[in-house]
Amino acid sequence: MVTFLAGGTGTPKLLDGAARVWDPAETAVVANTGDDVELGGHLVCPDVDTVLFAGGGVLDRETWWGIEGDTTATHEELGRLADAAGLETGPRYLDDDAQTAGREIARWRRFSAVAEFMEIGDRDRAVHLTRTSLLDEGHTLTEAIRVLADAFDLDIDLLPMSDDPVATLIHTEGGETLHFQEYWVARRGEPPVADVEFRGAEDAEPTDAVRESLADPVVIGPSNPVTSLGPMLALPGFERALRETPVVAVSPFVGDEVFSGPAADLMEGTGREPSTAGVAAAYPFADAFVLDEADPTELGRHVERTDARIDDADDAERVARACERALTAVAGDAADAAPREGAE
């Protein structure tokens, strides 16, 4: 058994090759839900759905978002109606009272669908409608995602990090508070970050299924340490569980150069060094790391080196095999350190 922690695109890309290394039926994926939003009453779970669509063979791999070949007629009509009515476009938060009313899982991340700022495809929207309706029927988020995973014939066990609401909020240097999706999708990573808040995390809990999965060896792909892993690590007991199981992490950096995405800006904005060394400092529970061959960083933990760039399934398999070697080495080190029978 092995468990992957997934957020953004880094870990989903790694999963493309992981199936050649670990049996998918023996693989769990815990997905970040801090990025989720409720858009026009429909719960959108971007990090969950990237894994869902990739595993189902329908992911748009050009954007790593949504369903390949999807139409956007509803999205386009929402924009046309807003323009025709002279309505203000851009992210439109519901008011403060509405943020904590109604469906609890959507707290602090409710947006109007007027001129929706995230492009949602028509088939993609059907997924969000199904998930939201299952929640309204009384199912947990874990149960709703299990239904969708069955519909997409996933071999892996896809788990949301929690059935409770956690919202990733970006505090900017100008004093604004933005949901992560507004910061990244609507604002394109602007303005500069002053801090990141995981609102609700202190009152949320990992699910029982997540706790069970964390008893197995864990792989953290080249995901963003702040907004992909941060919401998970903010959950009570999550990091403690990682300290008690073998963990290998793939750095999303080569030295101080990030492969892609906003990881460097977010790490710098939250007082972390934007580099592999900064990732290692953010993951004190990690027993081993997989680093790119060109990464000059020296760490005081086990390191496997390979070409860490992932552009296709063969690349992903190469990095996954480096993760496997790291976990094997860590397990061997633990066995060597354990008292032998008869030892005092």
Automatic annotation (TrEMBL):
The family assignment reads: Belongs to the CofD family.
The keyword Transferase is annotated on this UniProt entry: yes
Binding of 7,8-didemethyl-8-hydroxy-5-deazariboflavin, residues: 49
**HAMAP family with a match to the protein in the record:** CofD
Q: Which domain of life is it from?
A: Archaea
Q: What does this protein do?
A: Catalyzes the transfer of the 2-phospholactate moiety from (2S)-lactyl-2-diphospho-5'-guanosine to 7,8-didemethyl-8-hydroxy-5-deazariboflavin (FO) with the formation of oxidized coenzyme F420-0 and GMP.
- UniProt subunit comment: Homodimer.
User: One Pfam family name from the record?
Assistant: CofD
Q: Which reaction does it catalyse?
A: (2S)-lactyl-2-diphospho-5'-guanosine + 7,8-didemethyl-8-hydroxy-5-deazariboflavin = oxidized coenzyme F420-0 + GMP + H(+)
Necessary cofactors: Mg(2+)
> What is the official name of this protein in its record?
2-phospho-L-lactate transferase
Organism listed in the record? Halorubrum tebenquichense DSM 14210
Q: Which InterPro entries match?
A: CofD (IPR002882), CofD-like_dom_sf (IPR038136), FbiA/CofD (IPR010115)
The pathway where this protein functions is: Cofactor biosynthesis; coenzyme F420 biosynthesis
List the SUPFAM superfamilies. Answer: CofD-like
The GO biological-process annotations, alphabetized, read as: F420-0 metabolic process
Enzyme category, top tier: transferase
| This enzyme's EC code(s) | 2.7.8.28
GO MF terms listed in the record are: LPPG:FO 2-phospho-L-lactate transferase activity; magnesium ion binding
Q: Identify the gene encoding this protein.
A: cofD
KW Transferase (keyword) present: yes
| Keywords carried by this UniProt record | Magnesium, Transferase
